[in-house]
Amino acid sequence: MFDHRIYNFSAGPSMLPEAVLKQCAEEMLNYNGSGMSVMEMSHRSKVYDEIINQAEALFREVMQIPDNYKVLFLQGGASLQFAMVPMNLLRTGKADYVVSGSFSGKAYDEAQKFSENIHLAATTKPLKFSRVPTQDELDLTPDADYVHICFNNTIYGTKWHYIPETGNVPLVGDLSSCILSEPIDVSKFGLIYAGAQKNIAPAGLTVVIIREDLAGFTLPGTPTMMDYAVQIKNGSMYNTPPCYPIYVCKLVLEWIKSLGGLEAMKAINQKKAAMLYDVLDSSKLFKAVADPVDRSMMNVTFRTGDEDLDAKFVKESIAAGFSNLKGHRSVGGMRASIYNAMPVEGVEKLAAFMRQFEKDNL
Ligand SMILES: *Cc1c(COP(=O)(O)O)cnc(C)c1O
What we know:
The chain is an alpha/beta fold and 362 residues long. It contains 9 helices and 14 strands.
């Protein structure tokens, strides 16, 4: 039992900025003089219309999204995009997938339900996903409908430090665990998608940023709800959108703006990640899991090499007021997810805790 907020290193759903949570609380019973909570509003009302329009305008401003891209607020999580992407973007049936971790593997598997010509352009599975492929390692199909990558590998703690060159073939990026963590050149992608529960908002919202010329070519049998063109035409309101997460998304974007935008966000995130990697690189007890060239700024994976000691670390970390430091069940070890909302102070305290644990256990 805690009588205060703790440092939650969960990979997702994860922490939200305290200022945002406080504003949600203040506006919970009566949003902006409407006499009701945002949770209770008609999505067709004037007051809600303003919320969703502002959320979109802020997304465009903060990420500097070019005018020929649409921003969609959908449901179904990133996992539904594993199917929606092939259902909407496959025209010739050919697509390239780069498998650099667990989620990109799931996306690759899902795409194969829709075509027999889904090509594995590269995988770092033999390296236990300790890094992502280099440009030279990508075996790309020149006339593919798209190339799919996962930009930050949440479970293994790696990220792409470059945007692959794919010529005229649209690049599709799963940015679920790194969107809004730093500036990114949206024009290098045909489509970006992200589940909200890591860096955007509570679970229930999926953001899709799509170059408008890519929509409108669905495979036969595609459900109406899964057609990007339908969602574009209806301004993400073909049916009831995830109203409350969209509102929180608006508040999170305002919070990022108040800090100075994505350049400032990146500087803070770099500082946090460096604190933990410094501990790992100077440690005789802990080892970083990811290859230094492709280390994630959002998910820091590490282990001691001794499963019992890992378990002891996790147990003691909980008693010390940190939560969710246990690594993903598929890889073991530890993982500290340090998304935008994790305060610098939380990472400083974790770094100190790690140093002390090393002293006590070496
Ligand atoms: C969390 C995550 C997913 C899965 O997201 P859901 O919204 O739960 O479907 C997919 N890809 C990446 C990179 C993730 O981090």
